[in-house]
Amino acid sequence: MQRHVAILGAGPVGLDAALACADAEWSFTVYEAADTAAAHVRAWGHVRLFTPWDLNVSRRMRTHLPYAPTGDDCPTGAELATRLLDPVAALPALEGRIRYRTRVAAIARTGLLKHEQIGTDTRAAAPFTLLLDTPDGEDTAEADLVLDCTGTYSHPNTLGPGGIPAPGERALADRITRTLPDTSDPTRWAGTVLLVGAGKSAQTAARDLAALPGTRLEWAVRTPEPDWGAVPDDTLPGRQHLVDTSRALADGANDRATVHTGAHVQALHPAGDRVRVMLTTASGPREIVCDHVVALTGYTGDAALYRQLQVHECYATGAPMNLSAALLGSAGGDCLAQPSVGIDALRNPEPHFFILGAKSYGRLNTFLLRTGYEQIDQLAATYAEESELLPAGT
User: Fold this and answer.
1) Whole-angstrom Cα distance, residue 143 to residue 61?
2) Of 74, 115, 264, 375, which is most buried by a Cβ count within 10 Å?
3) 70-124 confidence digits (pLDDT tens)
4) H/E/C letters for each residue in the chain?
5) How many angstroms separate the CA atoms of 383 and 389, rounded?
6) For residue 156, what are the contacts with CB-CB under 8 A and spacing of at least 6?
7) Which of 68, 79, 60, 51 is nearest to 20 (CA)?
8) pLDDT in tens, 222-233
């Protein structure tokens, strides 16, 4: 009986993993919580990437889709989904292999607890049990190799200065936007918007919100003297444009935008149909009464999925320890200059369980789709060489 691969998530990296399994003629199933592929990508579909098509289409995707987009144009999330990922999900090689509206709620080693059979062949040989939430209720499935490609976009970080919720944040959760705002309808963001965060998502939101004539932007940035993630001689014009725009806003170029540096959210309070936010800033405490709160303080993956598995996480980044060590040991924060790591950096103490894609970077913000595709290359090559997916007993 051939061993089975479970792929969690039908985003770009999950779909590329599925193509790798199909090419190797391995048995596999993709589990996707949404009712379509690339759900996270669609959630920011209005945003344009600063990387071109050639960095977002994998080698396998191009082999299966010779007409896949190419060139230096940078797609929006919606274009990436409709022009690339939807056609990949519809390929005959993946027909019947993607289970939509099926969320993997938890993973365990069949018959073994987390602390049992540490580093033994017995544990490595035991199949995984997946607890599934399906349209028909709870179910289970088994797999011999599990690839967690669930991403991070559905698990945003909170607003408090130490990484925990600020007082009042939980009570006002339904009043806080934690995804990139779509500004195509300017009236949606009329009034005062408090934006919190300084990464590329926050910079994108600041650029778009500051351009709305009916919007007053108050931008809270934690760093006292932000460098906006500038890369010397940046080869990605879209990324450099965000840096330039952020610097201009911080310098007062827009009289409807104020950038508060060294700022931390101390508390949130309801103020009728508005929100009163208490900030500490480099220039002293501030009280901002706003109509909208947009929190773009980063995203991290759901570690609860593998709570019962032997996963060694970095105490700083939350990423798998071996990969995190390799990334933290490299110089610079340019996503184009990330090191090429080997399969050992992707392995966990739990045999045959891998965290891949954006989730594998934990709190590090230098992940590119190209990196995820390289991870799939390394895993597929290693397992083919080791014959780990040959029929049992051969």
Assistant:
1) 25
2) 375
3) 999 999 999 999 999 999 999 999 999 999 999 999 999 999 999 999 999 999 9
4) CCCEEEEECCCHHHHHHHHHHHHHCCEEEEECCCCCCCHHHHHCCCCECCCCHHHHCCHHHHHHCCCCCCCCCCCEHHHHHHHHHHHHHCCHHHCCCEECCCEEEEEEECCECCCCCCCCHHHHHCCEEEEEEECCEEEEEEECEEEECCCCCCCECCCCCCCCCCCCCCCCHHHEECCCCCCCCHHHHCEEEEEECCCHHHHHHHHHHHCCCCEEEEEECCCCCCCCCCCCCCCCHHHHHHHHHHHHHHCCCCCCEEEECCCEEEEEEEECCEEEEEEEECCEEEEEEECEEEECCCECCCHHHHCCCCCCECCCCCCEHHHHHHHHCCCCCCHHHCCCCCHHHHCCCCCCEEECHHHHHCCCCCCCHHHHHHHHHHHHHHHHHHCCCCCCCC
5) 7
6) 178, 179, 295, 296, 297, 298, 299
7) 60
8) 999 999 989 888
The whole-number pLDDT of residue 206 equals 97
Res 366: pLDDT:
81
Report the C-alpha gap between 275 and 268 in whole angstroms. Answer: 7
User: Measured between alpha carbons, how far is 251 from 1 in angstroms, rounded to an integer?
Assistant: 65
CA distance 33 to 103: 4
Residue with tokens 């190419």: 70
Summarize pLDDT for 23-50 with one digit per residue, the tens: 999 999 999 999 999 999 999 999 999 9
Neighbouring residues of 355: CB distance < 8 A, sequence distance ≥ 6? 148, 301, 306, 311, 319, 320, 348
Model confidence band, residue 184 (pLDDT cutoffs 50, 70, 90): very high
- Both tokens assigned to 246: 């952020």
What count of residues does the chain have? 394
Separation CA 40–CA 105 (nearest Å): 18
Structure-derived torsion over alpha carbons of residues 305, 307, 311, 315, reported in degrees to the nearest 10: 100
The β-bridge relationship of strands 98-99 and 27-31 is: parallel
